[in-house]
Amino acid sequence: MFNSEKTEKPKTLTGTRLRSYAFALLTRRDYSQAELIAKLNQYAINPEEVDKLVEELAQNNYQSDQRVAELTLASQLRKGKGLQRIKQALKAKQLDAELITEELQEVDWLDQAYQLKIKKFGEEIATDPKIKARQIRFLQYRGFDMGVIMKAIARTSGEE
């Protein structure tokens, strides 16, 4: 019935079947080069063929690490993540944060942290040390730097 041993999937893809599988993957979502290579190598017979195929897909702009980095940034910002968590997500996808350095510098991290604080704790400035500590931990977990956190929890709604 249930086999607890992991069975290796047979590696059978080459040529046009490998190319078709790569396109099928990329139509569903964007993958970084490293992710795509790992995914294709699960089924491909020849790893060199995979490397050439992924390089060709990148040259023809079917696969773009830049696009993946930008989408990851947008997704993480929507989720209310800070700079450190965004860099961690990029690293997990084996992307370099340098791809979106400009976009990262354009983000108003103080406003991001403040909006998140308001959403979770309200606009009131905490005077109780326990509540302050909770707010700090929450924003630290989200990946914001301490300087930004301290400004965000001390900020009033009238400040810009």
UniProtKB/TrEMBL annotation:
RecX first three-helical domain sequence ranges: 19-57
Residue ranges that the Swiss-Prot or TrEMBL entry lists as coiled coil: none
Record-annotated RecX third three-helical domain positions: 106-153
Subcellular locations according to the entry: Cytoplasm
TM region(s), chain numbering: none
Gene3D superfamilies in UniProt: Winged helix-like DNA-binding domain superfamily/Winged helix DNA-binding domain (1.10.10.10)
Domain RecX second three-helical: 64-102
HAMAP family reported in the protein's UniProt record: RecX
Role of this protein: Modulates RecA activity.
Family, per entry: Belongs to the RecX family.
Annotated protein name in UniProt: Regulatory protein RecX
